[in-house]
Amino acid sequence: MGKSVSKGLKYRAEVLIAELPEKFSEDFDKNKDSLNEIELGLSKTNRNVLAGYLVRLAAKKE
Predict the structure, then answer these.
(1) pLDDT of residue 3
(2) What's the rounded mean pLDDT across residues 1-7?
(3) How far is CA 6 from each of CA 22, 37, 51, rounded to the nearest angstrom?
């Protein structure tokens, strides 16, 4: 089995939360909507994984 969150998605999440901290929170659905607004060209699966990882980063940040 592979890792659930790839290094590329982790890096992208860290950059996003550093540049746009007000757009992301501990709410998964809000993070999904924010990622759709930014239009990064992610697949549905990658968007969901990234939104979930952003929840973890936001919780760790607080």
Answers:
(1) 79
(2) 83
(3) 24, 22, 13
pLDDT at 27 over 90: yes
40 or 2: which leads in pLDDT: 40
Contact predicate 24/16, CB 8 Å? yes
Cα radius of gyration rounded to whole Å, the chain:
11
Structurally, how many domains does the chain consist of?
1
CA distances from 61 to 2, 13, 58 (A): 26, 13, 5
Identify the CATH number of the domain in which residue 57 sits: 1.10.60.20
d(CA 53, CA 59): 10
Q: What is the pTM of this model?
A: 0.88
- Identify whether 14 is part of a domain: yes
27 assigned to some structural domain: yes
